[in-house]
Every structure is written in structure tokens, then in C-alpha cells.
Amino acid sequence: MYLKVLFMKEQQSLETLKDIKRMMERSSRFISLSGLSGISAGVFALLGAWISWPYVYGFKNLFIRPGAALYSNGNAGYSAIFNTWVFWIAAATFVASLISAFIFTSIKSKRQGIPIWGVSAKRLMTQVAIPIVAGGIFLLRLIHFGTFGLIAPGCLIFYGLALVNASKYTLDEIKWLGYCELLLGIINLWFVGYGLYFWAIGFGILHIVYGSFMWWKYERNTAGNDD
Amino acid sequence: MLNPINNLNKLFDSRVRLGILSALMVNDSVNFNELKELLEITDGNLASHIKALEENKVIKVEKGFIGRKTNTTYKITKTGEKMFKAHIDALEKMIQSTK
Predict the structure, then answer these.
(1) Is the CB of B34 less than 8 angstroms away from the CB of A119?
(2) What distance separates the 2 farthest-apart alpha carbons in chain B?
């Protein structure tokens, strides 16, 4: 009899400890990141890659004003970058992905009753921004020196690092997306002419696969019933 | 043999209270709505548990504003931290004692 009581106490203690661990994790992570955000970002990335393909591979003129000088003092100036179609396509893709990701995530966070601009969301944004901003500056300098072939692998690598970093502050699965982006970026370093294809796989296909998986795992049961 | 059950704090003998403290242990501060969402309970239920923890000086309450809306946040006190850690230790000992 005494043993039985002891066993029950042990089970209860274990349950309580598990509960505590779960609460600690849930309260320190931003869990409203929607899988649909990933899917939409992926779709925009594929669309952007498709539109820029003829410009990148020489079927259409890369430059908006073809007469303008590409190089000054042997370096590609920033003004030359702004003179390319690809830059503006990339910028539009980025903004469209960001806005759509924000919309889907705010819908999900509203459904969960979590403030989208709460402590956990801010912490997540900061942790994502650190590698992205550092990487962005690094890539701008690469462009300045005309090393265009390293832009796509650079984007993938820094984005991968940002996601791995982010995994401590949101749903943990995002680290696997991060590892895949990193791997893809590193492989791309040896296939420099194929940057756009790697970019399309990394930002397009991987996002769609990851987003679908996350939606299927966490959201398929809750979608639609706004209580 | 020392009975580990004696070290379990009666004040923490509730899933909700443990949940509140778990959240406050890993965050500087948490507001009312975040706790409500985390624990999936009603306003009244949460408020009563918070009151009990506050009266025992385990947590402290800070009232502030975000724009015009009131924003009440909670923090764990030093005493609260010690009590929570002791409680977890007791739980662990209880598991080990039967091994």
C-alpha cells in the first residue's frame, strides 16, 4: 500500500516537472509564426526568381538605363546596383514576402490572443535582425567590389544563421530550415554561376515545404474556426 | 529518512500557480493577457491565483500604460525565486527517493 502511494507521488511529481518545463518554453517563445507565412514568402520568392531569370542570364538587358557606367575607379558603384532591374525585383519580392508573412502571423496571433508586438515577438525580431543586418552590410560591400557571384550564397548563409539563432525564440523546428539554407548556401559557393537557382530553391521551395509542414503540424485543426 | 513531501510548498500546490511562476522564472516580466493565454484560463481564475501569490510576496505587480490602455505586468521576487527553486528540488527528490 505504502509503495503504491509512493509510486503515485512519483508520477505526479514527474508530470508537474514536465508541466513546468513546457510552460517555461511556451512563455519564452513566440509561437504565432504561421506556416502560411512561410508558404506565401516561398511563392513570392519563386515569382521573383522567375521574373528576374531573363535579366540575370542575359536574355533581357540587366540595366534600366543601359548607357550608365557600371564601373567607376574599377569598382561597381552602388548607383549601378540601383540601375539594375534585378535589384528592384529583389526589393519588391522582399517587401511582398514580409508583408504577407506579417498578415498571416497577425491573423494567427489574434486567434491565439497573443499580442503580435509582445515581448517574445520583439525578442525574436531582434535575434533575427542581428545576422541579417550584419549579412546585409557584408553583401553590400561584396556588390561594391563587383563580386556578384557570392550574393546568392551570401543571402542563403546569413539567412540560415538568422533562422538557427531564431529557433531559440520561436517554434524549435525553424532550425532545420536554417540548417538547410546554410547547407544550400555553402554548396552554392562552388557553383557560383547558378546563384539564382540556389536562391529559388532556398527562398522559394524550402519555404513552401517548411511552411506546409508547420501548417499541417500546428494549424490545420484550428484554421477557419475563429471563436 | 527525511520526508521530501515536507519540503513541497503548499502555496504552489496548483497547476496555475506553478504555470505563472514558470513563466516569470524565464521572462523579466509577463503581462496579464500573456499569462491568460499561456495558461488557458479565465480572467477571474487567473486574478485569484495572482492575488494569492502577490499576498505571499512571491510575485510583484507593476501597473503601467500602453497608450491609454492599462498594462499590468508581473515579476517574480527574490523570495519567490528561492521558494520556486526549493519546490522543484523537492519534486526532484521525490522522484529520486523511489528509485
Answers:
(1) yes
(2) 57
Tell me what the mean pLDDT of segment A140-165 comes to: 91
Q: Report percent pLDDT > 70 for chain B.
A: 91
CB contact under 8 A, B38 and A118: no
Rounded CA gap, A114 and A204, in Å?
Answer: 28
> Which of B91, B33, B70 is closest to A10 using CA atoms?
B91
| Angstrom distances, CA of residue A66 to CA of A58, A61, A71 | 13, 7, 13
- Nearest CA of chain A to the CA of B86: how many Å? 13
Q: What torsion, rounded to 10 degrees, do the Cα atoms A102, A103, A104, A105 define?
A: 40
Sheet holding B30-31, edge to edge: B30-31, B69-76, B59-66
ipTM of the complex: 0.80
CA–CA separation, A143 vs A159, rounded Å? 17
- Total domain count for chain B? 1
For A6, the closest of B18, B33, B98 (CB atoms) is B98
Domain for residue B28, yes or no? yes
CA distance A114 to B31: 11
Of A185, A153, A181, A189, residue with least CA distance to A165 = A181
User: Average pLDDT of chain A?
Assistant: 85
Q: Per the domain annotation, does B99 fall within a domain?
A: no
Candidates B18, B27, B37; nearest CB to A16: B18
User: Is the CB of B94 less than 8 angstroms away from the CB of A13?
Assistant: yes
pLDDT band at A227 (very low <50, low <70, confident <90, very high): very low
Nearest residue in A to B28, CA atom: A119
pLDDT digits (tens, 9 = 90+) for B23-66: 999 888 888 888 887 888 899 999 999 999 999 999 999 988 87
pLDDT at position A208 is 96
CATH assignment at residue B77: 1.10.10.10
In a domain? residue B2? no
pLDDT band at A226 (very low <50, low <70, confident <90, very high): very low
Using CB atoms, which residue from B22, B37, B97 is nearest to A20?
Answer: B22
